[in-house]
Amino acid sequence: MLMLGLCLALVSPVHAQQVQSPPVDANPAIPVATGVGADGIRTEETVIVIGEQPGPGLWLVRKGGHDLWILGTLNPLPAKMQWQSKQVEDVIANAQEVIRPPSVQLGVKVGFFKSLTLLPSLLGVRKNPDDKTLEQVVSPQSYARWKALKTRYIGSDRGIEKWRPMFAALELYNDAMKKSGLENGKSVWPTINRAIEAHHPSVTMVKEEIVVTDPKPLVKEFKRTTLDDLACFDNTMTQIETDLDAMRLRANAWATGDMAALQALPPPYQWEACSSAITEAGIGKRLGFGDAQKKVGAKWMAAAEAALDKNAVTFATLDMKDMLGPNGYLAKLKAKGYMVLAPDE
Q1: 3-class secondary-structure state, position 270
Q2: By three-state DSSP, how is residue 156 classified?
Q3: Residue 95: exposed, middle, or buried by beta-carbon count in 10 A (0-12, 13-18, 19+)?
Q4: Which of these, 106, 125, 134, lies nearest to 11 by C-alpha position?
Q5: Is the separation of the CB atoms in 64 and 168 below 8 Å?
Q6: Quick check: 63 and 308 in contact, CB under 8 A?
Q7: Predicted pLDDT at 113
Q8: Element (H, E) at 325
Q9: Neighbouring C-alpha atoms within 13 Å toward the C-beta of 185
Q10: Of 130, 201, 231, 311, which shows the fewest CB atoms inside 10 Å?
């Protein structure tokens, strides 16, 4: 049943591998291999931090005597980092409310026995229609790049050759992160949840749910639909070919709280092409993914403003790509007249 959430998962890819945290007195960093491989792909040497790290400082949005503290999150992060933030714990200890980041969720409302009848139709949902291979659906130039990157990061897996370009790109991306000392989807929430359990602020969920009562026709339609995901495939490979070192630098800057370095680096990869392959497809439009994303953004703004009206202290988290920039949440709050202060201010 979780496969029906694939559309939303692709908007913000998450790798679920559990990584054991190193001891606190571990070496502060580990090197990443350098050199040029036989495939011509260069991996620059960058030191990846490990062990306990403080993370970045918090942004502050203020209205009179009411404060909203926001932690900007980032993907990927150092795989062997253990995030410990005294500032976050102190803020939550004094907060009346914690606001969760905005999310669009796909809810499937069927009974258990009916869900069992869906299992056969879910098999092969990642595969190309008509059993085509990647070599048949992407350009020769793209496939040559894919072969080199696959050899380096995935290996000889033949089954992936029949996957849709978007799914293949996502698998390649996650494997490239692992081999670069990074983890996509490393969560800050275990630490935040411990602080919530200790101090009991109210927790506000900001979500927009798309409810599906009869998923079987949608699954069948998705399996026979050709997605416009070639741009997603090419863009993701370009990211792996050109931006791995910048990803390591961004991850280190976030982990160590180096805000100057974090903001000086180019922004992380945006997944618009992959997201659009789903949201702009016929099935995505019919389910209303695009509208749901707009609605949940408005809901988060409303929750933030309500918190600034009633709470002395509120804590929230936002993905940095959604928080910063001319169209980010901080810019929108500042345009409404709230005082917005960066961590180093």
Answers
A1: coil
A2: coil
A3: buried
A4: 106
A5: no
A6: yes
A7: 46
A8: none
A9: 16
A10: 130
